[in-house]
Specification:
It is a single chain. It is built from 2 helices and 3 strands; from the N terminus they run βαβαβ. Helix content is 35%, strand content 21%. By secondary structure, it is of the alpha/beta class. The chain is globular, with a radius of gyration of 12 Å.
């Protein structure tokens, strides 16, 4: 499966659970976070739960700036 899903605010409680389910079903997931530290934390959390994070991509998105939206 090559479908990709965007999850904004992936470090949130509900979003992290949605990401886990999507990854387990074979979807590629692109998630946005406000800081790279939050992105690494969600990767670590999912990996610790046995989720294959090879299809997980984290993008930093500062909601108050124009930079990064194109990504």
């Amino acid at each position: 499966m090559t479908d990709r899903v965007l999850i904004t605010g992936i470090s949130g409680f509900i979003a992290a659970h949605v990401a886990q389910r999507l990854l387990e079903k074979g979807y590629a997931v692109r998630g946005t976070v406000r800081t790279q530290a939050k992105g690494q934390a969600i990767k670590d959390k999912l990996a610790a739960q046995g989720v294959d994070i090879s299809k997980l991509e984290i993008i930093g998105a500062n909601l108050g700036a124009d930079a990064g939206w194109k990504d």
